[in-house]
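Q: Two folds, back to back.
A: First:
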Amino acid sequence: MLKKFNQFFHPQINRIDMSFTPFMANVNGNILQIMQATDDNIPDLLVLEEQVYSGRTPWNKFSFETELRKRRNSLYLVVYQASTLVAFIGARFSPEETHITNIAVAPAYQHQHIGRYLMQMMIDRARENDSDSVTLEVKTDNEIAQRLYQSLGFKGNFIRKDYYQDTHTDAMNMVLWLKPHQIKRKKFTF
């Protein structure tokens, strides 16, 4: 009786499923292991960021540790080929929005559809969790990434000035609507 009482007064509306079962996938001829990231992966994540961002690490060890603790509404995946980290992706989920927080693919594995595969996984997960949209930020000068996101249905939304503080670069916010988007308009009576 108490359980039913609690469910009535504290319903778990839009419960988000963050469970993840590791698996192997063949992406463009690469046999990849895809698993949920843990603190043990942080050294590899930092090395991959240095490779992708020309020696810089936009996210430091503390940033990764903080994000990996948010298991209630976040999912971070790492992708290995044998013992080499080749890519990762992270996202935060809510009923209104799934936000891609970070994605990177090692330079030697770029242009092999691994990034597309990871993005599609997160979009599918957002649909399963009944999110209204998927959003992300991308550097305004990163045309290759923008084309990938556009090919998945994302549209430019607005510019965030100086979003990337380490390089003083602007970011474009992009959105993929998963449900019909309606602008709420006020009704005026005359």
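A: Second:
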Amino acid sequence: MRILITNDDGINAPGLEVLTEIATRIAGPGGEVWTVAPAFEQSGVGHCISYSHPTLLAQLDKRRFAAEGSPADCVLAALADVMADNPPDLVLSGVNRGNNAGENAMYSGTIGGAMEAALQGLPAIALSQYLGPETQTLDDPFQCARAHGPEIIRRLLAQANWGAVSDYRLFYNVNFPPLPANAVRGLRVSPQGRRQDSNFGVVPYSAPNGRRFMWVAGGSQHAPAQPGSDVMVNMEGYVSVTPMRADLTCHHSLAALDRALDPDLPPIDTDQLPDRKIEVTESR
């Protein structure tokens, strides 16, 4: 098996070393593991691509490349250039330092890399390690992902649906709980959750030259979410597996919205609409 790995923490991130080990075990003795990862940290870039400027690609070693771009850029670089003559059988993204459960999934470059691979028609899995008080005392905070990652990937490859749903190919988001490997309670297939009263925000900062800057700060990663969601099963000690697709449509709202908006409604004659006065308050 030929496996492409990427991440959003950067080419030198410890989680990428963990993923290299996992991928090597999955690929087997006759397999190959190729790395195309961001030259610098790209956390929080989501599914961003460098559409308006070129991306520098540098070879660091045999089957190891760094791109000055996002995880999605790295996948594109691998498929269009590095591995163009013989594309990968599987794309793995991670192992992220920190969870990509709940609302974090919307910002995650780790998931962005897996999503781009799925859009390109390839099986893809994003892997992230939830951190907490119990991982802080470990010599290897990625111990849980390192120990359980290979078996979960094997199960997904053998049993999961790798086809398309509503024209978009599925990919999988795996989050490992913030625990030592031997304390994991099992695996749960779970939907993406949302932490209650925990959002990203901004911390403003004034530089010595008087210019205004800001730091983007995340909310509590241990705030509760819906029972059974990825967030909650992680905090209860389980590995979460969430099937995803690059389709933001709220499908269960389509029929009701169609009825509400009445597709047979005739066009409005704007000339017959009453005049509206808009009050403008001058800013001071």
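Q: And?
A: The domain at 2-252 is CATH 3.40.1210.10 (Stationary-phase Survival Protein Sure Homolog; Chain: A,).
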